[in-house]
Amino acid sequence: LLGPTYGTGSILENTTLEVLDFNLLPSSLNLEDKYGIYSNLLFKYFLAEGIVCGHNLFVASAKEDPADILKELPAPLSDDALKNQVDEKETAIKSKQESQESMKIAWRYQNLPRIEVSPAASARFGHYYDVSKVVSPELLQSTKWHRFFLPEEMSLHPEIKTCNMTCGYTRLLQSIQRIIYQEGFDGSYPQKKQKNILRIGIQSLGSVLWGDDICCAHNPEDIYSLTKFLYVLRGLLRMSLSACIITMPAHLIQNKAIMERVTNLSDTVVGLESFIGSERETNPLYKDYQGLIHVHKIPQLNSLICDVSGTKDLAFRLKRKLFTIEVRETVFFHYLEPESVLFFCILIC
Amino acid sequence: MRLYQNSLTAAKERGQLVFLEGLKSCFDVLFGEEQHVGQTNPLQFVSENGSNLKTMYEFVRTSLIASGSDSWKCPVLLVDDLSILLSLGVRPVDVLDFIHYCRVAVCSQLKGNIVVLVHSSDDSEDEENELVVNSLCHQSNLILWAEGLATGFCKDVHGQLKIIQKGSSELKAERNLLQIYQYKIQDKNVTFFARGMSAAVL
């Protein structure tokens, strides 16, 4: 399923903006929308998908108790509800795929995914979630997960050896490394019966709560902390069966050089621009959407330069149960029905 | 890449390839056991919060010397990727010093070549990185510049490669030679073609 490096070969044919297969993309960065609402949603989608697939989770936050984050994960959609939602779009999607349209989402409708609750689940690609419901406690209980809550860590282990990084980052790295080693995600225990994947979710990295000042100063005291952290994390991910999603309040980081370096260190970078509080909220051109998605970087195998999505105009909407991402038609053609697709999550890390 | 993977492994075993895996070395520095005296990790500077690439240079030099006794001709030093060093807290001047020392060792003394990868973009605001890139471009004999197409994404043409060859003599003021190719990346191969001559178009 997942190797420590690329080249596991599960490339989706004929796609550009693919449903970003986490198998290919160990590190992904989600640039938060201004109030962190939608980035949190996608963060939760990533974790929820881990639960449904039976993966192990590692949830890290400096502001919210990971247990609370998990309790609010969206519930997988039941089959009937799923069928109703998807039916009307199915024929349109199928015909589009056949005509090799510019719609590049690799969402296969031939076999409607069935939501499997048991851990021995699907090798299938993605599931649907009901945003209006939270995941059941039973499903949560069957998941093996690990927590990192910075305030808790600081009080439990006051003294640690730093590696010249912000203290919070050092602790987080040590914690991740410890779990990877102890649970054998790095192949330490070859006799372990079944290999599993560790899904790591890190919330609001770079914010002041992590002890970093890059969000509140143009010339921060230590501009290398964050990039060092990402580099070391990248090494950890490369050497283990894991994937990571990070949300980051990029709009608060004034030093653009840092953001460029952060982008270079990530496999995938996606930015969310919410319309809340902006003039677009009331602009009729955007009336169907809550925000835009900017794909800054997706990796391309066998290439030294990154790939950039062929579709530049992606918007998202949150309607009742579903969060969808759509290709937004330009003004010129706005009377046409936008093609909509369902995404379960891209922000792989 | 897969095509070359096996040959690289074989080369490594033959002693023809010395591979320093930065991610792994960095991991060893931070999480590994204490280093023995005399054994310094090339990425030691990460834990020391320093900007000193001396140990990395020593690694390069000793690797080349070790194999120098055999009939190694024209060694090549490949650095992927230099921009990362800036992210790890190394100052631009130290990065350039490192390259300078390597040039002396690899190019002048051993008559070899150095190939360095850096990231850059036209609208970059990373001044330190641009400084390094400009300086390297100035020193280089050959620049290969890979970038996406200016017109945006294309399924059949993944990007464009500019090859700039510096004139051999500055005294004669020979002009730089510029060639531009486009390319498409396939599973085991890359095809290059002149602009506008992609197979899809012809």
TrEMBL record, chain A:
Transmembrane annotation, as ranges: none
Keywords: Cytoplasm, Nucleus, tRNA processing
InterPro entries reported in the protein's UniProt record: Elongator_complex_protein_4, P-loop_NTPase
Record Pfam families: PAXNEB
Biological processes, Gene Ontology terms: tRNA wobble uridine modification
Pathway note: tRNA modification; 5-methoxycarbonylmethyl-2-thiouridine-tRNA biosynthesis
Subcellular location field: Cytoplasm; Nucleus
Annotated Gene Ontology cellular component terms: cytoplasm; elongator holoenzyme complex; transcription elongation factor complex
Primary localisation category: cytoplasm
Lineage top rank: taxon: Eukaryota
Keyword tRNA processing set for record: yes
Record family assignment: Belongs to the ELP4 family.
Function: Component of the elongator complex which is required for multiple tRNA modifications, including mcm5U (5-methoxycarbonylmethyl uridine), mcm5s2U (5-methoxycarbonylmethyl-2-thiouridine), and ncm5U (5-carbamoylmethyl uridine). The elongator complex catalyzes the formation of carboxymethyluridine in the wobble base at position 34 in tRNAs.
PANTHER family the record matches: ELONGATOR COMPLEX PROTEIN 4 (PTHR12896:SF1), PAX6 NEIGHBOR PROTEIN PAXNEB (PTHR12896)
Name the UniProt record assigns to this protein: Elongator complex protein 4
Organism: Chelonoidis abingdonii
Lineage start: Eukaryota, Metazoa, Chordata, Craniata, Vertebrata
From TrEMBL, chain B:
Gene3D superfamilies named in the record: P-loop containing nucleotide triphosphate hydrolases
GO cellular component: cytosol; elongator holoenzyme complex; nucleus
BP-aspect Gene Ontology terms: tRNA wobble uridine modification
Entries under Pfam families matching the protein: ELP6 (PF09807)
Pathway(s) the chain acts in: tRNA modification; 5-methoxycarbonylmethyl-2-thiouridine-tRNA biosynthesis
Superkingdom of this protein's organism: Eukaryota
Family: Belongs to the ELP6 family.
PANTHER family reported for this sequence: ELONGATOR COMPLEX PROTEIN 6 (PTHR16184:SF6)
Name of the molecule in the record: Elongator complex protein 6
Source organism per UniProt: Chelonoidis abingdonii (Abingdon island giant tortoise)
Gene name tied to this protein: ELP6
